[in-house]
Amino acid sequence: MVRVTSARTDLRSRRKRVAARVMGRGLDLYERLNARMLAEVTPPADDPFYRVPENLEAFYPGEVLDGRPVEVRGLRRPVSADAWHVKFRSTDTQGAAVSGLTTVMIPWRPFGGPVRPLLSYQPAIDSLGATADPSFTLRQGNQKELPFMLWALRRGWAVVATDYTGPRHAFAAGLIAGRFVLDGIRAALAFEPAGFDAATPIGLWGYSGGGQATVSAAEQHPSYAPELNIVGAAAGGVPVDERSWPRMLDDDYFLSGQSLASCIGISREFPDVDLHGALTPQGEALVAAAAEMTVEQLWLSFPFLHWGDYLTVPSWLEIPGMRGVANRLGEATPTTSMYLYHAVHDQFPAIADVDELVEKYRREGVDVTYRRFRFGEHFIVALTSVPSSLRFLSERFGSPVSHVGEAHRTSA
Questions:
Q1: Residue 162 forms beta bridges with which residues?
Q2: β-strands 338-343, 230-236: how paired?
Q3: Pairwise CA distance, residues 222 & 245, whole Å
Q4: Stated pTM of the model
């Protein structure tokens, strides 16, 4: 992987230079530990199963193109579930036929109710390359949100996790994420070895970047995949509109690789966004270095970005086409029940945006339960919100509440 810290000229202070060097060494240590602890799996670029089939236009959205059994792991330990990769046809932001991949997991534990429910779990991919997609990380043992999926599997729920950033790995592009989630569910239901029932109740759950994909899928469900029996969607830390992140333009922000990745991802899926036309030569080199990075690599490689050194326009919001991107949530109305939650002191997505989204949904008649967590920030609430999310989904599935502490369900 390309190391960029030593080439940075925009680190204005000694404090930032020292912090950037420390973060770069932390990345080296993190990758050495991964090499020792994780299973050896063929990367997607070298795996023939990931190849795009010909004549995709001949298939309908969600149609199964191929399938294979796989093993899901936490580190090197196999998960107690039957699992498959299912390749399917989907639709990108411009309406073109594309192929996608989802991972379907059926637990060995039986479900106590009449029909086993299906949870579509959207982990926060937040990355720009295929090695961060759940189809790879779940087999490698490196999926950070596997514990949330395990809570569902232990209840007897089936779980599907889709590579929802699409073939261009367009992080932060909400429209394609929602479509891929819905088509991944369609493919899972149609995949005969998984044995789903036509009446299978479906739930959606995700946090942060996964929350954006979850809400986008809920919004597009009535028009794009109305036949799916989606009974509820739980989403937290949702970036309603990346352009209003309070720290997106802060040159002192130590995780500014996240905003860099958002710019790159959105430009990949929306051709009117001319990112490369707004980059300096140093900016071109920076974007090229980030092209396939995981979220950990992005965070630790690009702290404290000073945007003025990399753009020929005043700010990233002035990149040609960026202001006109139709990527904000709230442009369509879900018909399923929603549980939305957010940290009042979230340092990433602005809670004011979520407040506004909830009010809009309620005016439009959506059944919304909303919780504003007054203790904790983005990462803490990702954990403290788990009991209430599971309770919400359990109630919609008609399954007993167990395995986690009692949840609190309140409205604000």
A1: 102
A2: parallel
A3: 28
A4: 0.94
Query: What stretch of H or E contains 73?
Result: strand 73-74
- Token pair listed for 143: 């999926």
Six-digit token pair at 137?
């990380």
Domains, the chain, ordered by start: 5-36+242-318 (1.10.260), 44-241+336-397 (3.40.50.1820)
Per-residue pLDDT of the chain (412 residues; tens, 9 = 90+): 555 655 688 888 899 999 999 999 999 999 999 989 999 999 999 999 999 999 999 999 999 999 999 999 999 999 999 999 999 999 999 999 999 999 999 999 999 888 999 999 999 999 999 999 999 999 999 999 999 999 999 999 999 999 999 999 999 999 999 999 999 999 999 999 999 987 899 999 999 999 999 999 999 999 999 999 999 999 999 999 877 765 565 666 788 898 899 999 999 999 999 999 999 999 999 999 999 999 999 999 999 988 889 999 988 888 999 988 989 999 999 999 999 999 999 988 889 999 999 999 999 999 999 999 999 999 999 999 999 999 999 999 986 544 433 333 333 3
